[in-house]
Amino acid sequence: MIDLRSDTVTRPSQAMRAAMLQAPVGDDVYGDDPSVNALQVKVAEMMGHEAALLVPSGTQSNLIALLTHCGRGDEYLVGQNYHTYLYESGGAASLGSIVPQPISVEADGSLSLANIAAMIKPKDVHFARSRLLSLENTHLGKVLTQDYLTQAVQFAHSRQLKAHLDGARVFNAAVAQNLAVAEITRQFDTVSICCSKGLGAPIGSMLCGSKDFIDEARHWRKMVGGGMRQAGIIAAAIDFALENNVQRLAQDHENALLLQHELATISEIKVEAANTNMLYIAFASAELAVQVGEYLKSREILISYAQRTRLVTHLDVHTEDIHVFVAALKAFFVGQT
Ligand SMILES: Cc1ncc(COP(=O)(O)O)c(C=O)c1O
């Protein structure tokens, strides 16, 4: 199968599985798992933070960050189509009584500082208390510039807001800009990274922040059911991913560009510019998208069946797979005429 639906579909390699098999383990809820403890120290340092916490998923990591930063009736400001607001089942509001203030997202994936400023509530009994700005990098594959991030975090702090980064794909941003990841992440109060996307681990995210913040986050992790026991096997997979799968993200970015150029030769689809490991294409109708999807599936290629659909490159998509996919798509349209 060539699976272009998401970078979450990557499977652990034999070498990663071997590392998992050998991991020393203990009960992580007691703080006894040596592999988890070592990974948390390593990731905190890598991100430029004091401490880190292993959690099962990116959704839970962001939720724990919100629950730790905000109390009942507090507000967080977030992009209208950022994951933390739109795709996390309303967790902050329903589980934390935290009020979201969505803000429209600019074409480059950022939130304008003027829009943020306009939405911060005055201190007045009528309003929720604005506490947190939550950004996302990359957003739909787009890299937020360093200048923007610095300005946004400084602005948040100047207005007594904390700043959280949903850095599910922050390694893509770092590799694309040839930066150490800490240069992006250390300015935020907290950052969540995902290890089960482009990095290729089967499960796991890491929440990073100050030692006090992570101590408190550990309490919330237990409450939402994220306390895991012999989690060292997961930590070993993540450690393997960090050692072996970061720099290779550049290959995924190259493959996304190749995909953009190759698809541009097919007149029946509209192709948007690739950003890091993602690009969007559009079919003439939703029905056509389903027909294409079914046709490709019969050829062992998976894409999402949407009229405007996202294609994602990752470590299980090789350069030759790009050519196989493009040839199959061309064959579909030839068959149509
Ligand atoms: C930007 C972003 N943040 C957070 C998440 C949540 O990660 P998970 O699927 O591990 O809950 C995702 C998942 O796709 C994502 O794309």
How would you describe what is shown here?
- With 337 residues, the protein is α/β, with parallel strands linked by helices.
- The protein has two domains: 7-244, Aspartate Aminotransferase, domain 2, CATH 3.40.640; 248-336, Aspartate Aminotransferase, domain 1 (Alpha-Beta Complex).
- The protein is 45% helix and 17% strand.
- It has 14 helices and twelve strands.
- It has helices at 14-22, 34-47, 58-69, 83-86, 91-96, 113-119, 146-158, 170-177, 181-185, 211-223, 232-244, 249-263, 286-298, 319-336, and strands at 2-3, 51-55, 74-79, 99-103, 129-136, 162-167, 190-194, 205-209, 270-271, 278-282, 301-302, 308-312.
- It has a seven-stranded mixed sheet, with helices on both faces. It has a three-stranded antiparallel sheet with strand order 9-10-12, covered by helices on one side.
- Helix 7 (146-158) links the parallel strand 5 (129-136) and strand 6.
- Helix 1 (14-22) crosses helix 11, helix 2 (34-47) runs parallel beside helix 11 and helix 12 (249-263) packs parallel to helix 14 (319-336).
- The longest helix has 18 residues, at 319-336.
- The two termini are 27 Å apart.
- The model has no long low-confidence stretch (mean pLDDT 97).
